[in-house]
Specification:
alpha+beta, 14 strands, globular
């Protein structure tokens, strides 16, 4: 690991001052991706800005028809939250299936979403539940946030502070996990929201994405059988030693049906 300067600011203002004018600084959430990347010498930031001491970035708040989760809230806290499990059970299920206990107790929802790993679970939740990503500068709609593999709409010095999830009428999540990492080979979040049905996929493509054909089918008939005969185009899906594009295309349909069943359809 290369030498770097370590900072642990106590406020967002302090964090912004450290970031200001320093293009080589990196924000540190749980460190589940950044620290291994640094250990392998694939990244060499000049400064690490650890957000763990900023109290305002942690916590789960229920207000009206939404749940807002602070960026530094861990996967384990989301999974164990009675507020989350009673209102968006699919989100609790998703969080409980991330990595192992060590990862869930260190990794954060904000770090996962900001990283936009193509195989991470939370991007499917953000898209599928039509969440809003809140930063220190603005609010970003889910459909505008994920722009590519490890790429998002966040500016270079913009800090993700929270994610607001509107309460769905019903939702379900299912994934086919890599047996070693528990990353999604393919994962699908299906949600019936106030604005219609949304189907979001992670693990299969370069970044999380929605499947309009499935959304249309489920809008007409919210049941797993509505997806019978529907095929996913494999031409732009990921292929690696874990699964071919064609196998991932098959898994997307299977996981979508399981997610619909989990949602009660």
């Amino acid at each position: 690991m290369y030498e770097f300067n370590y900072h642990r600011p106590a406020s967002l203002d302090e964090a912004k001052r450290i970031l200001s004018g320093n293009d080589e600084a990196k924000l540190l959430g749980g460190g589940m991706t950044l620290l291994p990347t640094m250990k392998m010498r694939l990244a060499q930031p000049s400064d690490l800005v650890d957000l763990s001491a900023i109290a305002s970035l942690s916590g789960i708040e229920v207000a009206g028809d939404s749940i807002t989760i602070g960026a530094m809230t861990t996967h384990a806290q989301v999974a164990a939250s009675a507020e989350v499990s009673s209102r968006i059970a699919a989100l609790s299920v998703l969080a409980s299936g991330i990595g192992d206990a060590q990862v869930r107790n260190r990794g954060t929802i904000g770090g996962s979403v900001a990283n936009s790993d193509p195989a991470a679970d939370y991007p499917a939740a953000v898209l599928g539940l039509n969440a809003t990503v809140i930063t220190d500068e603005r609010e970003i709609a889910a459909d505008d946030f994920f722009t590519g593999m490890f790429e998002t709409a966040l500016g270079p010095q913009e800090i993700l502070t929270a994610i607001r999830f509107p309460l769905p009428k019903r939702a379900g999540y299912a994934k086919f996990p890599n047996p070693a990492s528990r990353y999604a080979v393919a994962g699908v979040m299906v949600a019936e929201t106030g604005n219609g049905v949304r189907v979001a996929v992670t693990g299969a493509g370069a970044n999380a994405y929605r499947v309009s054909e499935m959304e249309s089918a489920l809008s007409a008939n919210f049941s797993a059988s509505a997806l019978d005969g529907l095929a996913v185009d494999a031409s732009e899906l990921n292929g690696d030693l874990h699964a071919s594009p064609e196998y991932r295309a098959h898994l997307v349909v299977v996981m979508a049906k399981r997610a619909v069943a989990a949602a009660g359809g």
